[in-house]
Amino acid sequence: MKDQNNLSRDTMWKATVSCDSAYDGIFFYAVKTTGIFCRPSCKSKVPNYENVSFFSNAHEAQRAGYRPCKRCRSD
Fold this sequence. Notes:
By secondary structure, this protein is an alpha+beta fold.
C-alpha cells in the first residue's frame, strides 16, 4: 500500500491530473481558490498547480479550512 508520506508533490500532482483512483485514500488535494478538497480520482476541472495543497487525510484538510467535494464525496 502506498503511503502519502513517501510520495513527492510531483507524484501526487500527476495522480491528481490523471484522476488516478489508485491513490484514493492515500492523499487528498485541496484547492485554495475554491476552499474544497477532493480525492485524486475526482473528475472536476484540474486546478492550477500553484493553488493546490496536499493532505494525508480528510480530517487534516477540514482542519485547514477546506470543505469536502460534493462531486467525489471526499468526506
